[in-house]
Amino acid sequence: MKSIIQYSTLALAALASAGPVMERSNSPYVGPENGTLVIIGGNAQDDAIYQRIIDLAGGPGAPIVTIPTAEGSDKYDDNAAAAGTFRRLGAKNVTVLHTYDPKVADTEEFAAPLRSAKGVFFGGGRQWRLVDAYAGTLTERLFHEVLDRGGVVSGSSAGASIQGSFLARGDTANNQILVGDHQVGFGFVKDVAIDQHVLVRNRQFDMFDILKVRPELLGIAIDENTALIVSKNDAEVYRGTYVIIYDGKFWSREGSDLKHLPDSSSIFYFLKDGDKYDLRKRQVVV
Ligand SMILES: *[C@@H]1O[C@H](CO)[C@@H](O)[C@H](O)[C@H]1NC(C)=O
Ligand SMILES: *[C@@H]1O[C@H](CO)[C@@H](O)[C@H](O)[C@H]1NC(C)=O
């Protein structure tokens, strides 16, 4: 009996999450068709990045919802998940939204602020907590709808990784396991795995743990206080240090001659502020 209940719960969860994914599978875009993503590699200190999110949401009056759930705290105050930062920078309509309970996340009452939101920001912590709370619920669907109507979805650290289709470092045991017990993110960008804190934490080789088992994915690893801004197939580095691209190729503004060229299964390269990348062609835009 128990196994039947578990099975049907799983099947229902699969059906619920299949909806939006199937609708979107014919899209010619790897990123969102409408709206913009701001994907930050952790330790987001740069006001210019938060300001960019406010601008993309439509200015100071635009309703912004921040989601602190990844943090795992018992309680959150009104400033959680950068809500205080957005207000300090002039945003006038910022709401902190949180539950750990997917049944609550599936209610209209809980999800209501997302109906009119023009911006969403996911704070840091452990990305699997966002999956456990929101995957397959009305709340997750409304995150996608913020993009559909031209808004901005953003996040830092765990709030960066959750935006990929493959969930990097999704294990509940610790944050060192790249292919963990949670492997599906919210998929605002398809066919990618997104890592964060990459250079500061010496994580530049970790992406290969994922690409060895999922070679079809594009790897994107973002350093701290650095943003990747994505719409349709276009990605652009904004501020900070570097974003590392793992697409099996090598690129450098100095030309493509690398003195010690590793084989294509262990190669990556760096993009910086202003550099642009085509997520569909998987090549740098020069
Ligand atoms: C915030 O935005 C919501 C949705 O547009 C609106 O109902 C509410 O009145 C706004 N609150 C403030 C303080 O502007
Ligand atoms: C994107 O916006 C256009 C124009 O408003 C709309 O027709 C289209 O359905 C939107 N796409 C998605 C995926 O919602």
From TrEMBL:
Residues 1-18 form the signal peptide. Gene3D superfamilies: 3.40.50.880. GO terms for biological process: proteolysis. SUPFAM superfamilies: Class I glutamine amidotransferase-like (SSF52317). Keywords: Hydrolase, Protease, Serine protease, Signal. InterPro entries: Class_I_gatase-like, Peptidase_S51. Pfam families: Peptidase_S51. One of its GO terms (molecular function) is serine-type peptidase activity. The keyword S-adenosyl-L-methionine does not apply. PANTHER family: CYANOPHYCINASE. Belongs to the peptidase S51 family. This is Cyanophycinase. It comes from Daldinia eschscholtzii.
